[in-house]
C-alpha cells in the first residue's frame, strides 16, 4: 500500500493512515451519495446498548461511536464528543430557534445561497394559522362598539374614519388617507390594534414630539405601545413607533424579521407621510429608502397625511414605490389643495 500510494499519489499512506482517510471519505461522500436515512436499505444496525451504528463503520470493524471518537477527527473538533453528535445537537438547537423565531434572517439568507426556498416546518404552519385566525377575528369585530369601549360611550366616527378603518380591517393595501389636522387619522391604527392586541402594528413617525404624544395616547386608551430605539432592548407591542431613519437600519430589519417569523407583524403605518417629499441628499436622506424597506416587509401599508396635494400625488407614489393603480386613496376636504 505504501509503495503504490507513494508512486501514484506522491504520498506514502500506510494502513493506520488509510483507516482515517477511508472513514473521512465515507463520512463526507459515501453516506450522502448513497443515502443515510435511518432504517432504509439496512444502513444502520443497533448494538447491544441501543446505539445506531452506520454500516460503513461496521464494515471497518468498529462502531460508529468509536469511529467518531478515534478516526478522521477534524482539526477544530474538541477533545470529547463526536462530529455526528455535534450535528445532532445543532439540529436540536435549530428546532428551538425556529420555535422561538430566532435567526429568521439567517434562514432566509441560507435558502437564497442554496438556490432554493426553505421547506416550511410545523412551527411555520402554527404561526401562519394563528395569524389567519387573528385576521378572521378582527373582521368579525363591531368597530363602532369597540370605538366606544376605547374612547368612551359618546365616541362616534367622524369624516372618513369608518371607511378607512374598514379598509384596514379588510387588509386592503396600499392605503393613503388624506385628512385635515384634528380629524383623527391616528384612530386608523389605534382601533385595529386595540381590537387585535396579539398582532403588531408598526407606525413610522418622522417627528419625535409627535411620536411621544401618540405613544402616550395609546397608553391612555389601553393600547400597549413601545418606542423602538437603536440602543437598548426592544420588544413587541400592539403598536411599535419608529422614526424613518431607524426604520431603514439593519437593526430594525432584524426586529421585523423576528416579528414575521413569529407571525406577529400585521401592518405598517407611515404618519405625516408627505415629509418624504421634502427629503433629499441634504435633508433626511434616509427617508428616500423607506419605500424599499416597506416593500421588503411584505405586509399591509397605510399612509397618513394632512397635506398631500393632488399635484404631488404622482411624485409621492414614485418616491414610495407605489403602483397608483393599486392605491386605495381616501381624501377628505383639507385647507391645502
TrEMBL record:
The keyword Protein biosynthesis does not apply. InterPro entries: DEAD/DEAH_box_helicase_dom (IPR011545), Helicase_ATP-bd (IPR014001), P-loop_NTPase (IPR027417). Residues 166-326 form the Helicase ATP-binding domain. It comes from the Eukaryota. GO terms for biological process: double-strand break repair via homologous recombination. GO terms for cellular component: chromosome; cytoplasm. Keywords: ATP-binding, Helicase, Hydrolase, Nucleotide-binding. GO terms for molecular function: 3'-5' DNA helicase activity; ATP binding; four-way junction helicase activity; nucleic acid binding. The keyword Cytoplasm does not apply. PANTHER family: DNA HELICASE RECQ FAMILY MEMBER, RECQ HELICASE, PUTATIVE (AFU_ORTHOLOGUE AFUA_6G14720)-RELATED. Belongs to the helicase family. RecQ subfamily. This is ATP-dependent DNA helicase. The lineage of its organism: Eukaryota, Fungi, Dikarya, Ascomycota, Pezizomycotina.
Amino acid at each position: 500500500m505504501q509503495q503504490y500510494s507513494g508512486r501514484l499519489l506522491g504520498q506514502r499512506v500506510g494502513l493506520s493512515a488509510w483507516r482515517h482517510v477511508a472513514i473521512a471519505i465515507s463520512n463526507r461522500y459515501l453516506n450522502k451519495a448513497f443515502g443515510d436515512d435511518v432504517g432504509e436499505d439496512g444502513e444502520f444496525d443497533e448494538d447491544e446498548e441501543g446505539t445506531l451504528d452506520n454500516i460503513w463503520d461496521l464494515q471497518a470493524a468498529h462502531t460508529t461511536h468509536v469511529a467518531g471518537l478515534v478516526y478522521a477527527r477534524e482539526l477544530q473538533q474538541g477533545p470529547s464528543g463526536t462530529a455526528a453528535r455535534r450535528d445532532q445537537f445543532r439540529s436540536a438547537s435549530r428546532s428551538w430557534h425556529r420555535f422561538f423565531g430566532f435567526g429568521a434572517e439567517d434562514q432566509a439568507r441560507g435558502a437564497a445561497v442554496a438556490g432554493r426556498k426553505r421547506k416550511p416546518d410545523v412551527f411555520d404552519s402554527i404561526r401562519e394559522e394563528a395569524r389567519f385566525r387573528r385576521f378572521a377575528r378582527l373582521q368579525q369585530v363591531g368597530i363602532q362598539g369597540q370605538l366606544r369601549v376605547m374612547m368612551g360611550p359618546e365616541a362616534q366616527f367622524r369624516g372618513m374614519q369608518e371607511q378607512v378603518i374598514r379598509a384596514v380591517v379588510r387588509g386592503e393595501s396600499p392605503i393613503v388617507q388624506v385628512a385635515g389636522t384634528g380629524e383623527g387619522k391616528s384612530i386608523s391604527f389605534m382601533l385595529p390594534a386595540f381590537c387585535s392586541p396579539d398582532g403588531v402594528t408598526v407606525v413610522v413617525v418622522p417627528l419625535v414630539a409627535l411620536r411621544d404624544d401618540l405613544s402616550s395616547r395609546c397608553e391612555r386608551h389601553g393600547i400597549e405601545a413601545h418606542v423602538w430605539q437603536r440602543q437598548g432592548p426592544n420588544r413587541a407591542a400592539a403598536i411599535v413607533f419608529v422614526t424613518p431613519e431607524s426604520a431603514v437600519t439593519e437593526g430594525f430589519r432584524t426586529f421585523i424579521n423576528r416579528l414575521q417569523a413569529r407571525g406577529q407583524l400585521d401592518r405598517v403605518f407611515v404618519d405625516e407621510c408627505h415629509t418624504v417629499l421634502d427629503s433629499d441628499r441634504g435633508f433626511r436622506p434616509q427617508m428616500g429608502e423607506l419605500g424599499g424597506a416597506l416593500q421588503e416587509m411584505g405586509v399591509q401599508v397605510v399612509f397618513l397625511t394632512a397635506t398631500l396635494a393632488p399635484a404631488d400625488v404622482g411624485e409621492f407614489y414614485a418616491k414610495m414605490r407605489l403602483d397608483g393603480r393599486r392605491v386605495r386613496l381616501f381624501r377628505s376636504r383639507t385647507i391645502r389643495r
